[in-house]
Amino acid sequence: MASTPYLVVQGIVLRETETKEADKILTVLTREQGKISVIARGARRKGCKFAACAQSLAYSELTVYHRGEWYYLNEGSTLELFGGLRNDLERLALGCYFAELTECVTTEEEPAPALLAHLLNGLYALAVLKKDCTLAKAAFEIKLLCLAGYEPLADSCAYCGLPKPEQPMLDVVQGVVHCRHCGEKGVGLSLPLRGEALAALRHIVYGDAKRLYSFHLGRDALDALAGAAEAFAAAQLERGFRTLDFYKSLRISDLPSK
Q1: Neighbours of 240 (CB within 10 A)
Q2: Which of 129, 142, 130 lies closest to 204 in space, CA to CA?
Q3: Any idea what DSSP says for residue 58?
Q4: Pairwise CA distance, residues 117 & 209, whole Å
Q5: What span, in angstroms and rounded, lies between the C-alpha atoms of 80 and 120?
Q6: Axis-axis angle for helices 113-127, 133-147 (nearest 10)
Q7: Contact between 251 and 90 (Cβ < 8 Å)
Q8: 233 pLDDT exceeds 50?
Q9: Terminus-to-terminus CA distance in the chain, angstroms?
Q10: Pairing relation of β-strands 169-171 and 176-178?
């Protein structure tokens, strides 16, 4: 009888689902195989040797084997657990949103190394660099959409061609920047890019990915960018995200009562 062929991959758990008595089904984005579904037998048992690898947002080296429609986890060793997230519920919730958003734009077993690198960098920005959550969220959403093929046209007004649009706005449906008065020609939903928000948008879309989170904005401009980024993701992907709803519920609970 032929021995089972094992495959060693590096990947991050996007989602975990409990099944049967002590098992989990893991949705894992790997560097080599793209997005795969992995059954982790006994992952919920006390003393399981790969329990740490079988949790959401764990980045690990996994040894798996393929049988039928599933991969099965044989063993694993963690590479990064992003402890800075697990000690902060708000950042953990945002990290889970990053993972759900990434899962939405990836397909089964289609290599997506740029998307994996983007997710790891986003989690690092939250967990280690401690970037402002609003800034990190906006930058992550916009760049993820760019990598997934939804890059907005932001270098000039889409209608009149003005490099510096007057009272710039982002049409989140059409994916274009335009002058406020030119927006009357559009058919989508446009949101204002106040202050330096347009410069930040261009930095995210066209700048060096290694410096994605290296910008600063005043609160009004940051709020404008964040609102446009979230609306852009929702409009392009045409769905909501439960992890985003949870993250926003935490943000609301942190607001001071009047």
Answers
A1: 8
A2: 142
A3: -
A4: 10
A5: 9
A6: 180
A7: yes
A8: yes
A9: 71
A10: antiparallel
Question: Residue 55 has which token pair?
Answer: 């949790």
Q: Which residues contact 46 (CB under 8 A, 6 or more apart)?
A: none
- Gap between the Cα atoms of 144 and 212, Å rounded: 11
Which residue has tokens 């993701």? 233
At position 139, the amino acid (one-letter code) is A
Q: How much is the pLDDT for 254?
A: 63
Q: What is the pLDDT of residue 185?
A: 61
The burial class, CB within 10 Å (0-12 / 13-18 / 19+), for 28 is buried
- Entry field: residues in the chain: 258
Which pLDDT score, from 0 to 100, does residue 186 have?
58
CA–CA dist 160, 156 (Å, integer): 8
Nearest-angstrom CA–CA distance, 41 and 51: 10
DSSP line for 126-161: HHTS---HHHHHHHHHHHHHHHTT---B-SS-TTT-
Query: Is the pLDDT reported for residue 184 higher than 80?
Result: no
Confidence (pTM): 0.93
pLDDT value, residue 46: 86
Secondary structure (3-state) at 40: strand
Q: What are the tokens at 96?
A: 């889970």
Do residues 12 and 62 touch, judged by C-beta distance below 8 A? no
